[in-house]
Amino acid sequence: MYQIKTYNAIAPAGLNTFTADYALNQSEHPDAYLIRSVNLHDESLPTSLKVIVRAGAGVNNVPIKQATANGTAVFNTPGSNANAVKELIIGLLIMASRNLLAATTYSAQHAEADISQRTEHDKTQFNGIELTGKTLAVIGLGHVGSLVANAALNLGMNVIGYDPYLSADAAWNIAKQVQRAATLPDAVKNADFVTVHVPKNADTYHLIDEKALAAMPAGVQLFNYSRLGIVDNTAVISALTTKKVAHYYTDFGETQLAEHPAVTVTPHIGGSTIEAEINGATQAARTIMTYLETGNVHAAINLPDLNVPFNAAYRFTIIHQNVPNMVSQITAKLATANLNIATMANAAKNQTAYTIIDVDDLQQLSQTDLITELNKIPAVIRVRLLKQSVNL
């Protein structure tokens, strides 16, 4: 029986994805955490914890280094809320182009006025523009950015995309009419609207800074529904003052943005739909089951991809440091135990490596001893022994 500990409100559809081999919140020694927004940075991770999956896009609330040192794989659920964010961006583009926020504010303030006269007189101040023929720069063409780009094309917009890290698989999701820019300044130089959809890391922190804003035409409208810190808010405030940026829309509030008339802050609702929560929870549950039952890894934050068909009777999965001579040390231990290797695979990601070894015959009495011997290898972090459908 696998033990799962959940944090936050997880969609019931996700929890119902688990099979009868899984128990929820019944042990202080969980095999897995299923989380959303809980901050784990001040938590001590139990040694029993083999995997953490966040039902959402980011993992800023997970202590990745601590998890890796603990031998705990970390996953998120990329793409599970992509459609939700896309629809919000498209809605905001329409609101921005038609001055809907200002118009509804006006109506609320003049509810007592003679609508037939007052509004007819004043409505021209809210004249907007049509999106057809306007240019949208999409910075980041991953799960969300590609959907936004394609949807904007369907609205008749010219779409310029910029993503120096675009994978071949992701490129297949982007319509051929989306123009690709070689640099960030090239992407934004003629944009009426700029929207940012990149992960937060050392390369993307303050990606939209004073220099990037200077490359945009005057009157541009900017959207950040990616992460706090991707846009330099101090630089944006300055650009708003000079009218370089006409309006800034973001899901991430900061004190300096509060009550600015040209800033619209939404309360982190980009991925907050019922459907996105179900998608994230369901995807997270499936990720947990796949990892615990097979050891296979796809798109982990701290482990390399390794997908090996589990056709043997037993499987060893070994998380270890990415240092020389590890595979030979591991196989030597198996040879000493007189085990024949049916399948072996190894991969590395940065300083961490992952090895899967399948064997057909393993005597019950030797299992604990062999795990002990493998753990004695200095650079080994965690050893797991899996049996078909059963975690031993």
From TrEMBL:
<dbReference type="InterPro" id="IPR002912">
    <property type="entry name" value="ACT_dom"/>
</dbReference>
<dbReference type="InterPro" id="IPR029752">
    <property type="entry name" value="D-isomer_DH_CS1"/>
</dbReference>
<comment type="function">
    <text>Catalyzes the reversible oxidation of 3-phospho-D-glycerate to 3-phosphonooxypyruvate, the first step of the phosphorylated L-serine biosynthesis pathway. Also catalyzes the reversible oxidation of 2-hydroxyglutarate to 2-oxoglutarate.</text>
</comment>
<keyword id="KW-0560">Oxidoreductase</keyword>
<dbReference type="InterPro" id="IPR006139">
    <property type="entry name" value="D-isomer_2_OHA_DH_cat_dom"/>
</dbReference>
<dbReference type="Pfam" id="PF02826">
    <property type="entry name" value="2-Hacid_dh_C"/>
</dbReference>
<comment type="similarity">
    <text>Belongs to the D-isomer specific 2-hydroxyacid dehydrogenase family.</text>
</comment>
<protein>
    <recommendedName>
        <fullName>D-3-phosphoglycerate dehydrogenase</fullName>
        <ecNumber>1.1.1.399</ecNumber>
        <ecNumber>1.1.1.95</ecNumber>
    </recommendedName>
</protein>
<dbReference type="Pfam" id="PF00389">
    <property type="entry name" value="2-Hacid_dh"/>
</dbReference>
<keyword id="KW-0520">NAD</keyword>
<dbReference type="GO" id="GO:0051287">
    <property type="term" value="F:NAD binding"/>
</dbReference>
<comment type="pathway">
    <text>Amino-acid biosynthesis; L-serine biosynthesis; L-serine from 3-phospho-D-glycerate: step 1/3.</text>
</comment>
<dbReference type="InterPro" id="IPR006140">
    <property type="entry name" value="D-isomer_DH_NAD-bd"/>
</dbReference>
<dbReference type="InterPro" id="IPR029753">
    <property type="entry name" value="D-isomer_DH_CS"/>
</dbReference>
<feature type="domain" description="ACT">
    <location>
        <begin position="315"/>
        <end position="388"/>
    </location>
</feature>
<dbReference type="GO" id="GO:0004617">
    <property type="term" value="F:phosphoglycerate dehydrogenase activity"/>
</dbReference>
<dbReference type="InterPro" id="IPR036291">
    <property type="entry name" value="NAD(P)-bd_dom_sf"/>
</dbReference>
<dbReference type="InterPro" id="IPR045865">
    <property type="entry name" value="ACT-like_dom_sf"/>
</dbReference>
